[in-house]
Every structure is written in structure tokens, then in C-alpha cells.
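Write out the bound-state structure for EPU.
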Amino acid sequence: MDKMVIKGGRRLAGRVHVAGSKNAALPMQAASILASVGNIHLTNVPSLLDIKTMNQLLQFLNLTVTFDEEKHELLLDAQQRVASEAPFEYVDEMRASLLVMGPLLARTGHAKVALPGGCAIGSRPIDLHIKGLIQLGATVQQQDGYIEARAERLVGKMIYLDFPSVGATESLMMTATLAQGITTIENAAREPEIVALANLLNKMGARVHGAGTEVIRIQGVNFLHGCDYELMPDRIEAGTFMIAAAVTNGDVIVENAIAAHNASLIAKLEEMGVTVIEQDDGIRVVGTAVLLPTTVKTMPYPGFPTDLQPQMSVLQLLANGTSTLDEQIFEKRFMHLEELRRMNAKFQISGPVAVLSGPTKFSEAEVTASDLRAGAALVLAGLAADGITQVRNVSEIDRGYDQFQEKLHALGAKIDRIDIADKIKLSPNHRTGETN
Ligand code: EPU
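---
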């Protein structure tokens, strides 16, 4: 298992390019199952473990998948007969595998998908996905670790989501494209990834209106076809680099970052004294020597994203005074804080709220990434720490950050990756021994 080794204390400076959005790509890969005519051709697809896991699942389901990782182009062909069973090995690897359930049901009338187990960030039930499919006319059974849904025909319905779940909104939106009549999803998620998926579906011949608002209306059609679609930049990767710039009191231009997608983060950075400048080519973030404390509460979009909460906690811990962090989306997303404690962080957790005492002088330690965003947060803490930080379990980071280490290195960080045999995998232009 690889680890990342970071020698802290360097200001990040320069330009970094943001890859295509992972969480927009995954539902689009699943949506390709719906295209019975023509191919789906996605561009600006990030080269990530999760994208490859979804590709493997689609291949298992009998789709033809061609991924050119260099060109970031993905061609998905579902014109042949599609299988309808997604085994545990894929779902266990990645919960987003569940996104194939709705499209399989809509396309073949049958879907059997392994039930996801526990997760590092919370229990993550899927009741809203299931309730919605039942409302669209499916019979759903749960047995032997699988969920099996059948429907001879799906019929549009008004569906109210108890919570604006991203995955449930995506799943039901995809399923409803081939249902008879009109489906409305009330209290729908409003994330930019939802809007992107609706745009793709409409290019495939669907009739989806209102994505990005609380009510999405879908008029069913008889079939969907292939199309070309370019993925938007990843707002969580962009936000991570914006926070990294602030954590190191640096000066970084995050190329092609979309300010509107990270408005809540920009507001918090400015509150803390960080300068954020919107430019034609992206967002420039200039740090400050004295960070002010702030309160952060995660919420569904356009609220502060839970996927930036661990990284933001590092910045809050560096601030002069007491900050609070209120995690409202996932109940176990403070695992990184326990690791940061090993790097000298002082905090108290009470239910969903963490009270963080700054300013922290992060010290060197060996720490473990419990999930992908926790991993990114630990690397950020390492950038600010005195001495050498070692982050274990970095395959978690590979799930969601394309070339994370290389990009940080290009911005001036001293960071390396070491394999199990302690062989340094050189960063570009690396000088041997730089991290020591
Ligand atoms: N929820 C339910 N019932 C459901 C579905 C969700 O109670 O049927 C709850 C969850 O347990 C959770 C909350 O609703 O407490 C939010 O879950 P949501 O369904 O919105 O999340 P998701 O679709 O499973 C996506 C991202 C996550 C991101 C969340 C929240 C993808 C592939 N994943 O997950 O991304 O944290 O939305 O924004 O889009 C990541 O990239 O690191 C990541 C975890």
C-alpha cells in the first residue's frame, strides 16, 4: 500500500488545472445504460479509480467501454442486450455502483443490485431510492444481500424526497426518463452535478425540466440515444486546491474553477481573511498570515459541501481562535479529526458539532486516510506541518483526485509517494532526498 510523504512549510504558488468532475461522471456512466441507439461519448473524464470501477461494472453488464485515459475520453455503447445484475464486488468497491439500478430497471424491466454495506463516513441508507422506484410502479424485494426490482412498465408519479439526496434524485431522474407520462421530483437535490446529468439526458432525447431547482419534471419518452457531452470541472477538487492555497498562505490560480459552484467556500475563505479573486481563467486564492476563525455548517447545495468539510477543518484549525464545524450530511465524517489530533490538533466533538481550537502548530506524524476527502485533508495538514507527515492508505485519494501529488508538487509542495517497499516514486523534476 502506498503512502504520501510531505515535508511541510512551503507556500504553494502557481497555476493548477482542475480535472473533470468525478461526481458528475459517475451518474452519466450509469445513464449510458439507457441509450439503446448510438454511443455516449464523454469528454474531460478524469482518470480516477472510481471511474474505472464504474467502467468495469458497465462491462460486466455487457456494455462496450473504451476509455482513453490520456485524452480523457470515454465511449460507452449499450446498444447490445444489457445484463441486469450488479454483484457485490462492485458495490463493495464503490457505493455509487448503486446508480445503475434505476437505468437497468428502466431499460430492461429488471435490476438486481447488491445492497451496499456500511461506509467510512456514515450508514448511508438507500430508502429514498427504493421508495421512489416503488412509486414509479416497480416491485422491490430485498433478499440475500441484494435488492431486486421489477417493472413491466413504469408510470410517472409525483415523488417527494424526505431529504434532497443527490443519489436518489439522480437515480429517479434517470428512471423516469423512460416511464410513461410525467414524473415530478419534489425536494430534489440542486447540486451542479444534477443539472449536468439533466443536460446529458436531454441531449440523449429525454425531456427533463427544472434541474437545479427543488422541483424536477420529467416527461417520459420511448427511448434514448447516444450523444457527445463534455464534463464540467470538479468543484470539490477546485475547492481542495483553493483551501490548500489558504492553508499554506500561498498564491494559487485554480484554472477553470467555476466560482458559482463554490460560492459557499469563497464566502468562508473571505470571512477568514483570505483573498479570492475571480478571473477569466479561474479563481486566484491569496492566503493571509493571520487567519480569522469561522463557523461552517454543511448542507445540501448551495450550502457548504460535506465533501470539503475535512479540508476546511484544517484551515479552521490554523485560524487564530475558536471555530465550529457542524456536519449535517454524514454522521461519521469526523474521522480525519482523530488523525489530526495526532498532529497536535485540539478540538471537542459533541454529536454533529466539532469545536476547533486554533491556532494549531501541526506537528509531524504518521496518519491514515479513512476516506478520500479525509485523505486530502491530511495531506493539506501535512503541507502546513513542521517536519514530515506520512499519510497512509492513499489509494482512497486516488478514488477522487487525478494526479493529486503531481499537481501539489508542481505548485511547490515537497511531496512524494512511497510504495510498500519504500521506493520513492519520483514526482516530475524531483531531486532525490527532497523530502528529507
Ligand atoms: N440518504 C438517506 N436515504 C437515501 C439516500 C440518502 O437517508 O435513500 C442520506 C444519506 O445517508 C446521507 C444524506 O442523505 O446522510 C446525503 O446523501 P446523498 O444521497 O445526497 O449522497 P450520495 O448520493 O450517496 C453524493 C456524492 C458524495 C457526497 C454526497 C453529498 C456521488 C457519487 N457521491 O453521495 O460524494 O458526499 O452526495 O453531497 O455523487 C465524495 O465524493 O467524497 C462523496 C462521498
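---
Residues 35 and 225 are 5 Å apart (CA to CA).
Residues 235-247 form the longest helix (13 residues).
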